[in-house]
Amino acid sequence: DDDDDIPQLSSHALAALQEFYLEQQQREGMKTSQGFNQYSVGSIEEDWQLSQFWYSDETASRLAHEAVVEAGKGGRIACVSAPSVYQKLKEQDSKDFSVCILEYDRRFSVYGEEFIFYDYNHPLNLPENLLPHSFDIVIADPPYLSEECLQKTAETIKYLTKGKILLCTGAIMEEQAAKHLGVKICKFIPKHSRNLANEFRCYVNYASALD
């Protein structure tokens, strides 16, 4: 039979594929339904090729709350490669703070002037109107668990922040995070909407409610 040479999906793989397509259809249905919030975490889907892994809703909310408290009334918040937190901040629709998102993925340009294209390989290649030390707190989640990526992202963070830093990265980066940013690990353990193989942690350089 000629069909013998045609690769067949296992029943498990086929079920997983059908589940994926069903989830995709449901997401598209949500997007077209009334009341869809463009700032909801997951409204822009993860691109694993860009090493994107969105936080769980609970984690995004906790980090957004931390940023608002630490920025203070009228404060400015920068989210560097941390779109989940940016989206959660925008969900609040508050005039008590302002926020911008620095991100390599140009899909986030749908957020208008608050989107700033950012490539960690060129850490100080930033718009002229993005003044040094103009943000009350910077939240950053470097896309890769490498010292090179952390070191270059750290240059951006130090340029932007007035002082406060909230870093999210792997537990294995603890020593390098202290070396490049002077941050210490927190007790709070961030979670992602999909489980990651690497243990993930938060780091700060100030007295934090996350500890």
UniProtKB/TrEMBL annotation:
PROSITE patterns: N6_MTASE (PS00092). Keywords: Cytoplasm, Methyltransferase, Transferase. InterPro entries: DNA_methylase_N6_adenine_CS, Efm5/EEF1AKMT1, Mlase_EEF1AKMT1/ZCCHC4, SAM-dependent_MTases_sf. Pfam families: N6-adenineMlase. SUPFAM superfamilies: S-adenosyl-L-methionine-dependent methyltransferases (SSF53335). It comes from the Eukaryota. Its main location: cytoplasm. HAMAP family: Methyltr_EFM5 (MF_03187). This is EFMT1 methyltransferase. It comes from Hemiprocne comata. The gene is Eef1akmt1.
